[in-house]
């Protein structure tokens, strides 16, 4: 399992590189990477386990964040409905956003990142809805439509695979500026 000491921090060149495509079938090393990326998220979202291991809670973790420049990320969006089901959970491999809404969305509290230790205030404008194509750990192709928070989480993780950090999207002169029609997500 990855610990906070394994998370690459802002300033490391791997976070600014274009990650390499992953080949199938997955090597044993890539299978273990996928398992470890998801395990971090599962453990970090359990308050007792999070405290026990000294983790920061996360909803996404990309391979470059653990020093591996490959197009792989885990996403575990916590349940928001009473049914207890996550709106999106998977290891996304070689993900591509194939369509996106014109409508922008942003988190009211801004975004954070396990690789960025400092608070970077400001709205991070993203597409409110996306259609995502990716492969899972078995090499099966998926195409899903996501909106609001799950869409934002996936865009954040995909940015990591292309050498972009969330604060690159923040307006440097007016970090809290936004279009009137931007959807603000709690």
What would the keywords be for this entry?
single chain; 3-stranded mixed beta sheet; Peptide Deformylase; alpha+beta; 8 strands; about 190 residues; 3 helices; 5-stranded antiparallel beta sheet
For the residues shown, what is the average pLDDT? 96
Number of strand segments: 8
Query: Total domains, how many?
Result: 1
Give the helix/strand class: alpha+beta
Global Rg: 16 Å
What is the element string, with H for helices and E for strands?
HHEEEEEEEHE
Please state the second-level CATH architecture: Alpha-Beta Complex
**Uncertain segments:** none
Brief overview, please?
With 186 residues, the chain is α+β, with helices and mostly antiparallel strands. The chain is 20% helix and 23% strand. Strand 6 and strand 7 form a beta hairpin.
Task: Give an account of the 3D structure.
The protein has a 5-stranded antiparallel sheet with strand order 1-2-3-6-7. It has a 3-stranded mixed sheet with strand order 5-4-8, with helices on one face. The protein has one domain: Peptide deformylase (Peptide Deformylase, Alpha-Beta Complex), CATH 3.90.45.10. The mean pLDDT is 96. Helices cover 20% and strands 23% of the residues. Strand 6 (129-135) and strand 7 (141-147) form a beta hairpin. The chain is built from 3 helices and 8 strands. The chain is of the alpha+beta class and 186 residues long. The longest helix is centred in the first third of the chain and has 17 residues, at 28-44. It has helices at 28-44, 47-53, 148-161, and strands spanning 60-62, 72-76, 89-100, 104-107, 126-127, 129-135, 141-147, 183-185.
């Amino acid at each position: 399992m990855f610990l906070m000491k394994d998370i690459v921090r802002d300033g490391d060149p791997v976070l600014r590189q274009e990650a390499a495509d992953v080949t199938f079938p997955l090597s044993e090393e890539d299978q273990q990477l996928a398992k470890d990326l998801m395990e971090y998220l599962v453990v970090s979202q359990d308050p007792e386990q999070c405290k026990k291991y000294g983790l920061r809670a996360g909803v996404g973790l990309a391979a470059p964040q653990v020093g591996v420049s490959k197009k792989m990320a885990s996403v575990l969006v916590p349940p928001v409905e009473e049914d207890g089901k996550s709106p999106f959970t998977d290891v996304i491999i070689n993900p591509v956003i194939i369509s996106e809404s014109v409508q922008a969305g942003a988190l009211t509290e801004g975004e954070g990142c396990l690789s960025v230790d400092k608070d970077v205030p400001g709205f991070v404008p993203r597409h409110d809805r996306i259609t995502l194509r990716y492969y899972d750990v078995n090499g099966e192709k998926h195409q899903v439509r996501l909106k609001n928070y799950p869409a934002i989480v996936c865009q954040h993780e995909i940015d990591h695979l292309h050498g972009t950090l969330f604060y690159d999207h923040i307006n440097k002169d007016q970090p809290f500026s936004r279009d009137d029609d931007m959807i603000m997500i709690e």
